[in-house]
Structures are given as C-alpha cells and as structure tokens.
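Sat 14:20. Reprocessing the chain from the morning session after the first attempt stalled halfway. Input below, unchanged.
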Amino acid sequence: MLFPLLSGSAEPVNPDKTAFEICETGESVSFAQLEARANQVAHLLRASGVTKGEHVALVMKNGRRLLEACFGMDRAGVYYTTISTRLTATEAAYIVNDCGAKLLLISDDVECDTAELHTLVGEQVRCFRTGLGPASFPDWCAALDAAPRTPIADAAQGLDMLYSSGTTGKPKGVKWPLLDVPAGQPTMLVSLLAPLFGYGPECRYLSPAPLYHAAPLRHSMTVIKRGGTVYVMNSFDASRALALIQQHRITHAQWVPTMFVRMLKLPQAERELFDVSSLQVAIHAAAPCPVEVKEQMLAWWGPIIHEYYAGTENNGFCSITAPEWLAHKGSVGRASQGTLHICDDEGNELPAGESGVVYFSDGPEFVYHNDAARTAKARNAQGWTTLGDIGRMDDEGYLYLLDRRDFMIISGGVNVYPQEAENILLQHPKVLDVAVIGVPNADFGEEVKAVVQLLDPSAQSPALAEELMQFCRQHLAAFKCPRSVDFEDALPRHATGKLYKKKVRDRYWPAKSS
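Finished this time. Tokens:
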C-alpha cells in the first residue's frame, strides 16, 4: 500500500509498519494510523475555518500528537509554525501573533502559562488542547476522533514556517513560497535530504532533540515520508541515547556538538557498555564542532559522521563526509545547494583564503515574515543571502566557519573570533560548556571573557579560573584568550544545542541590547 502522504515515493509501504515511536513511553504509530490521523487533522482544520495558505501554530513537546498534527497540516495546504515549549507566554504569543495563526494547538506539559498565552493571542485565534489543559479549550483528540479518516476534498501540500531560535535577537519567521501542488508531493527538502543521507525504507532514525526545531522536525518527517521509522526521544540524555541505539539497532541519527561532548565525557567504561555498530550515518549540524571533538567521535564510531551547514532559512546547504573532513579538518563542506561566496562588509566578493561574511546565491528564495528590513539586511547588492556567519573558503570550495558576525569581539581594533577559544577550553577535562564573549574595557573597547560551566560545579575557584586561562594560552595567541573567567552552573542553550550567547553577553553590557 502506498499512502497519499508518501506519493512520489519509490516503494510501497506496509501499512502495519511503525512510522514512529516515542521512546520513553513505547507508544508507536503505524503508517496506517498516521495516514488516518493526518486526514482527520486536515478535516478538523477545515471545520475550524483554516483554509489553504493560512497559518497554524503549535506549542507542543515531543509526542505522537505533534507529528500527527504536522503531517495533517502538511496535506491541508497551510503553513504550520512549531514554537519552543521553553518560551514564556509573552514570547510564545509574539510568534503566534506575528505568524498570524488562526488556530493554536497547545499540549498540557508546556512550561508557559497557557491561560496567559490565550489572553495575549486574543479571541481571534482558536485554541485547542491535548490532554489536561485549560478547560475552556476544546479537546483536540476528541475533536479528531469525530472527524473523517478519508482525505479532504481540497488537499494540497503544506509547508512549515519556522522561526529562528532568537540567539541574537527576536525570533524571525522564515517564509518560503507555498507551492500549488497536490498533497504528498516530494518537497525540496525531501529531494535534498533523502539521497544525501540515505533516508529510505530501511532507515531507523533516532531523533534526540525537540521536534519544534527545524532540523529534527524536517529530518524526521523526511524519513517517514521515505518509508523509514523514527524513534523520538522526549529529551536528550547521553547514556539513554546510546542505549536506544543498541536497543532499536538505529541506523541513522542526528546530533549537535554539545551532545557529542556529553557522550564523550561519559566514563569510558560506561560508553563501552553499548553496541553502536548498527549506526550507518551519524549527522551533526546546528553549531560548529571543535576539531578535537570530531576526531574523538570518528575514533569511536568510525567514518560514518556527516556534517552539514544550513539554517532555518535553507538559503543554501553545505555538506561533508567523514573522508572529506579528514582531508579538510574543520570544514563544514562544500555547497550541495546554492553557490558559496565570501564577501567583505560591503558585500564585495573576496578571494579564496580570506575571511568574510558567508553568502549563498542560486538557493531557495525566502523572506523574514513581516520584516522587510531584516529581509533586506540579509541580502547584498547582487541579491545573495547570508545568515550572518563569518567564514573562509579554500581553493577547493570547502567552507570553514569562524563565528557569528554578531559575536565577533573587537579588542583594540583587532578582530577576535570567540569560537577559537571556546574550542580550546572544551578540551579541558573539567569543562562541560563554555561561552566566550566580549566585555567592556576602557582602553580597548572590549576584552575577552570566558563564562564556563564545569562538569563538577563545586570545583569553581580562582585557581581553576587561572588554570583555564593558562590552558588557552598554551594553544592560542594571548590576545585571543580570556583575560577573566566566570563560572555558571548552567549556560543558556537552546535544546538543539545553540548557545544563547546574547543572554550571556547582555549581563555584562547593561546598556547594550544587540
């Protein structure tokens, strides 16, 4: 049987096969069940007045209802926006209102005040709940149960409209044109990701990150659309993830570098308890991976580690295999979608080897929803687009990221890229996480500071701070190294691994808001 949600797929799919499973509960959903539920979601959207091209928002933790909802919206020709469950009601309401959602779906385990959220978005947004939520909200599951399981009459391909994680300011909604094609047609992302990483019917994919984020959601849906099975973790735990790889004979998984760090810092004896030989492809992205961390992962898992560089905007896409990376250590790959350019601050292209702003041309078009100024800022005179990263490209077209333009430190007129010191400090055996930032200096404008999270918070001391500064100076020029170290029990990271460095930096710049 070939389901409508898989039209265009090369192979039939057994309707009884598991489409996805929630690891913590063991709850599994077959392709037949997903097909029926997706149709019911589409019917409920139409009954709620949501038509093609309109918007729906979801504030939901990982679970079957989230994936079922996204597949239903994917066939109803609507934009769907998944929102972080870690946001406050005010932050979530900003996104709901900005995207113009007509319907809001809230799970019962989110951290924000749902009653406050409802007040902030207003009566024009119809709210549904899953499980135990505000009694005034209709029950999503009960409403679905009453809906038909057959396709809607006007089915059309929907599309996510996701928001950047807001690590440098307010989140930005990334909007691509909604294609006027039948539901279930292979989208640009499916056509890009499936062949690149080998997603297909035999794939058993582990998703250890929140599905409200772009990469986990898009890759998980791609695997299911290609007939594979996705295993969803509610939240990442290093030891638990390794156990799941062994238990389910996972073939594919996607990670972020902080997850690698946490797995590598497990005791060696604990790591050796788990059989990870089923892994065929381990993918990482979202943040640059220190060379030493990747070397250790390759020594442990073998040459199966793939890396890519892209953003929620997907204006371009770089990828690199393990053998390529070993020949170009530190690179995030060559462009497999779009054409790479390195430009100066005025948008002029620079030659190979020089550092500048990373741009893509010939990639998919996007705009920042309701923000023409930000859309224009992301483009240069040639129409090329940037995510705001600094990098360089070698003679063979391989890209090396240096840092975010927004986080570059200018000390005494010299550019300092914090990522270099962060990569060094992460090698220290007592360090679990680190943010290197610029802080005020009366003479130089800025000076370099490290804010460190230790494996053992009780080890904080002035002596250790001095040890970390000396450790950095053993590997980098002194001007790139921190002149002071502060300790924090936990750094503010997005659940997908991105560091909210702006939140760290702003503590030291009371009057600085960007």
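DSSP finds 16 helices and 25 strands in the chain.
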